[in-house]
Amino acid sequence: MIGVAAIWIFFLLLIGGFALDRVLKTSIRDQFDNQLVYILDKGLVAPAEIGPAGEVHSSHPPEDQRFMQPYSGLYFQVSGAGHEPYASISLWDRRLRVSMGHYDLKPHIYDSDQFPDEPLRIAERDVTLPGSNVRWRFQVAPRTLGLQFGFVLARASAPDNRSRRHTHDPIGDSVGFLFQ
């Protein structure tokens, strides 16, 4: 009887641990994605304007200085048919891939491996700006190493690892670490 109860407890703990792992991963990814959408909407789309030659530019530069540092791991790009991409300095001599084969009225978020040894999570949306007939594709793309760091942090902070317990909110800190 005790052996059967022990087996049941073992399997329930195993299932509970798996479920908790999935919930934490989903929560971290959702917070990461929400930050991407916020940067996309408030940092890129909201200040976007059309210049005299029909090109897109920003009424003020993005607040995060990593957009201004080459290869910093936080990138943005605005692309439109017939126009040179308006890209962050952090992209330097690279450009994000743009597939205009679909129309994203809402943010479209996906993982990309287009840069060697630098996995990206890209959030993009299409916008037609006032004064322009061009469909502009706005993209923001951070390295996902921080997202993976968040998964490790969440696991290390689980109650069974109390000796290594983090003193702050592990999920909030992992997302905050990326977008300071």
SSE arrangement:
Layout: H1 2-45, E1 48-50, E2 56-58, E3 74-80, E4 86-87, E5 108-115, E6 118-127, E7 136-142, H2 145-156, H3 170-178
Antiparallel strand pairs: 1-2, 3-4, 3-7, 5-6, 6-7
Structure commentary:
The protein has a domain at 33-143: 2-Layer Sandwich (Beta-Lactamase). The chain has helices at residues 2-45, 145-156, 170-178, and strands at residues 48-50, 56-58, 74-80, 86-87, 108-115, 118-127, 136-142. Mean pLDDT is 83; it is low at 151-155 and 161-175. Strands 4-3-7-6-5 form a five-stranded antiparallel sheet, covered by helices on one side. The protein has a two-stranded antiparallel sheet with strand order 1-2. It contains three helices and seven strands, in the order αβββββββαα. The chain is elongated and about 80 Å long.
Biggest sheet, strands in spatial order?
Answer: 4-3-7-6-5
**Can you summarize the main beta sheet?**
5 strands, antiparallel
CATH topology of one domain: Beta-Lactamase
Number of helices: 3
Calculate Rg over CA atoms.
21 Å
Strand content: 15-25%
Shape: elongated
* CATH architecture label name of one domain: 2-Layer Sandwich
Strand tally: 7
H/E element order: HEEEEEEEHH
Distance between the termini: 55 Å
Helix content: 25-40%
Class by alpha and beta content = alpha+beta
CATH class placement of one domain: Alpha Beta
What low-confidence regions span 5 or more consecutive residues with pLDDT below 50?
Answer: 151-155, 161-175
Mean pLDDT across residues: 83
How is this structure best summarized?
The protein is 36% helix and 22% strand.
List the defining traits of the structure above:
180 residues, alpha+beta, Beta-Lactamase, five-stranded antiparallel sheet, 3 helices, 7 strands
